[in-house]
């Protein structure tokens, strides 16, 4: 109104000006916002990992074949590059692949010849070994009577005769597995030839054709870091397995355990399952030693399990795996158990290199190039 005083704002006493809700939330519960931010990211990562494993489960044969092809490539690629200095690239690839196949077949033939040559001797030794085990079970602390042992043998025989049909069907399904194994091996060999010959060109083509130009440097850095980790882990675990196999083979030959050469080969392949494979293989060797040579030799093999386990865990793995990603033993144990739950023996073998590659990828993404 004309002549009146200008209006002014009136602030009532005791009423404070409210701050924005977001600032209050940040000041009050910051841990809740951080937990929520990490939670939805972890959920998203879990969904992606579940989807990847679901797809790989549908195409398990192809996934395993490609994994074996990458393993063969990581082992034979340095040899091929060395031969390529004096030979053309295709010829060096052929020499490396064919030579490795001939070496593997010769080793398998040597093992088969050793088993066939000792079959008659092994049969008599195992019969005597079973008798010694029966006598050992009759003494303290077991004190099993001969009647109880005869009942156990009869139960085993009755089970085999009563479940003959299911055992036969299991054997037939095993033949199907053998066919799948041959198919997967052929696919792995076929893919490894191309990976060894032109893996760099294949990676460059996939990077340039499938990725936008802005994302290519980061993906190239991540891919190379993943391959270095995978190749380093594969070569390292082969060195560890070969060292374990040599030590076990020498000990088994000195102790004159039957089937020493096949048990050595079993130890080599079992070492590819970290923390678990080597004790299981040496457990089989202990049973063979108990049946073939007696309790003293079996006890010596048990001591061998402890010694080689300590040597592998405290010397070989830290020394040989120094160029690859070193994981904490707890991470390795959890990875092996989780992998075995998800995909059995294959999951136990693949779990540790998979976790190593994922960790190296995360480290490469955090690293800012100069």
Structure explained in plain terms:
This protein has helices at 21-28, 30-58, 60-83, 89-117, 119-138, 146-162, 164-210, 216-255, 260-270, 277-292, 295-320, 329-366. With 370 residues, the protein is mainly α. It has 2 domains: 59-152 and 172-197, no CATH class; 217-370. The longest helix has 47 residues, at 164-210. The chain is globular and about 75 Å long. Residues 14-18 have low confidence and may be disordered.
Q: How many helices does DSSP assign?
A: 12
The arrangement of helices and strands along the chain is HHHHHHHHHHHH
Radius of gyration: 31 Å
Biggest sheet architecture: none
Percentage beta strand: under 5%
Total domain count: 2
- The assigned structural class equals mainly alpha
Q: In terms of per-residue confidence, which ranges show pLDDT below 50 for 5 or more consecutive residues?
A: 14-18
- How would you describe the shape? globular
Q: Helix content range of the residues, please?
A: over 70%
List how many beta strands DSSP finds. 0
- Mean pLDDT score: 75
Distance between the termini: 70 Å
Give the oligomeric state. single chain
Task: Briefly characterize the structure.
With 370 residues, the chain is an all-alpha fold. Helix content is 82%, strand content 0%.
Salient structural properties:
2 domains; about 375 residues; mainly alpha; about 0% strand
List the helices and strands and how they pair.
Blueprint lengths: L20 H8 L1 H29 L1 H24 L5 H29 L1 H20 L7 H17 L1 H47 L5 H40 L4 H11 L6 H16 L2 H26 L8 H38 L4
Helix pairs in contact: 3-4, 3-7, 3-8, 4-7, 5-10, 8-9, 8-11, 8-12, 9-10, 10-11
